Amino acid sequence: MNLCDIDQIKALLARHGFRFSKSMGQNFLIQPWVPRDIACSSGAGSGKGVLEIGPGIGPLTRELSLLADQVVSVELDRSLLPILTETLGDRDNVEIVSGDILKLDIPSLVRERFQGLEPIACANLPYNITTPAITALLDAGCFSSITIMIQREVARRICATPGSGDYGAFSVYCQYHAETELLFDVPPDCFLPAPKVTSSVLRLTPKDPPDEVDDPDHFFRVVKAAFAQRRKTLLNGLSGTFRSNFSKEQLLSAILSCDLPADIRGERLSIPQFAALSKALRQRDIRP
Known about the structure:
Elements: H1 6-15, E1 28-29, H2 33-41, E2 48-53, H3 59-65, E3 70-75, H4 81-88, E4 94-98, H5 106-113, E5 118-124, H6 130-140, E6 146-151, H7 152-159, H8 169-177, E7 178-186, E8 191-192, E9 199-206, H9 216-227, H10 234-242, H11 248-257, H12 271-282
Parallel strand pairs: 2-3, 2-5, 3-4, 5-6
Antiparallel strand pairs: 1-8, 6-9, 7-9
């Protein structure tokens, strides 16, 4: 069966009485080059175990299974399970796990299913869980690479540089944990039903935390404060979060001590600059 042929897909779905769920953000691929190119870009190969999220009817799953030693796909929609049994029944290195990726213990799942294999993650992520799913995969700390297809707007935010309009707290979070790389775009007409936006394939390569950051919790508290009010200066953003600990004069002193302009906005700071500011605040002997 061609899992990207629109006529065969419609017949398959009708045979199983399947109906698309808007709440689950279901959009199935209908162009074979897309799952093939995603699988090739993911680094799947001999000695690799792939965790996939939301296999749908299985086109990406099948491509991954042709490359990797083991594929474990987590599917929330139980109505897709009998369909996946039909479409992937001949792939003995594929396991479908029924569950919610946001509620599963990902490190435990990886340890149990990928013994002796190098774990990677690859997924056509539903738009409605993009941010929490990426966060869960990065926080799991067990993948050598994470290759995902997401909304282009979000992909650009993840890869954005300081000072650009797309740069935000989630940009800092992702770049703190991984090297980010935009690979290619996927237009709406590659999906059934067609979404209203273009998608992008993004690769995250996890890395060690920056050496400059010695207190991650405080670092990210400063980052969130800096972006809490984007149209305001960094000083006003910090004041909103740290007003019970510091006067505006003390906050300004910390900003200036990092060689930053008094009127700078948070979206202009790089990770090393956020790290220096976090350290400057903590050195002022007031617990945040």
